[in-house]
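Fill in residues.
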């Protein structure tokens, strides 16, 4: 049989790319069950003399894992719901309503994707300090929603463009108002868009640490990335437990990505074609 060298080269490149992408996760799991002394040996991976599963117990108990997990879930779920709600309402106003500044408003909102997070840390901190919301739930929720909204609006507008206007015209003839049209007709047709926006918003904010470390000081609203700092000392750190903490922190995001990967791919593809 004649070998298809193009396909062989393609599969080889894809396998190599997959190994490169998966290796950090394997490396993380490997070091999370080792002892801190074994981490300074030669080689990228190590075979522990004894598997230290107690690293995960220490990370779970001493790292305030349940408290930080509750905060992360509550803040991220609230941010996801707000981003979906605002994205649908803004997309409907921009794509369906006729007003002079709709194009300009859309452009201004989408420009948010070009603003780096680090450029807003200092001005946001000054504003939050004067308003009195530093070290609070709002200090994280506001920037999480603000930085996720441009991407959510971009995807939502792309999906809404594919919905026939005749459905809304028929609803108006039947006596539906604006909010009823949006809730009963538009929203159910955009389930795929809402799933994509929700997943991408959740994954983008789940491991965020820069803004959280800048705005928060007490344990009340700290999120999961702070668990790593619980095992950092002035002169030494418990590296093995830190790896266990990072493995526990990454687990929810990895599971969500593996289970719902098709929605992310579908949303990105439709947004690229229609946007």
């Amino acid at each position: 049989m004649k070998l298809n060298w193009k396909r062989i080269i393609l599969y080889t490149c894809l396998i190599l790319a997959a190994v490169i992408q998966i290796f950090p996760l394997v490396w993380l799991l490997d070091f999370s069950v080792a002892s801190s002394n074994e981490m300074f040996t030669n080689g990228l991976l190590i075979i522990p003399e004894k598997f230290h599963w107690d690293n995960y117990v220490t990370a779970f108990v001493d790292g305030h894992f349940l408290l930080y997990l509750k905060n992360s879930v509550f803040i991220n779920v609230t941010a996801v719901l707000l981003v979906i709600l605002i994205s649908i309402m803004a997309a409907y106003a921009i794509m369906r309503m006729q007003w002079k500044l709709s194009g300009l408003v859309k452009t201004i909102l989408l420009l948010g994707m070009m603003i780096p997070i680090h450029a807003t840390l200092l001005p946001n901190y000054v504003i939050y300090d004067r308003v009195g919301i530093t070290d609070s739930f709002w200090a994280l929720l506001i920037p999480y929603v603000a930085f996720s909204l441009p991407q959510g609006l971009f995807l939502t507008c792309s999906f809404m463009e594919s919905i026939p206007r005749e459905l809304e015209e028929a609803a108006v003839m039947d006596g539906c108002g604006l909010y009823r049209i949006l809730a009963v007709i538009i929203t159910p047709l955009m389930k795929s868009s809402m799933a994509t926006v929700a997943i991408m918003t959740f994954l983008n904010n789940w491991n965020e640490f820069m803004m959280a470390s800048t705005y928060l000081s007490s344990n009340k609203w700290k999120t999961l990335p702070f668990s790593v700092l619980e095992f950092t000392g002035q002169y030494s750190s418990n590296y093995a437990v830190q790896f266990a903490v990072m493995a526990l922190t990454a687990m929810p995001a990895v599971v969500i990505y593996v289970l719902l990967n098709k929605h992310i791919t579908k949303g990105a593809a439709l947004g690229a074609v229609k946007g």
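The domain at 63-274 is CATH 1.10.3720.10 (MetI-like fold).
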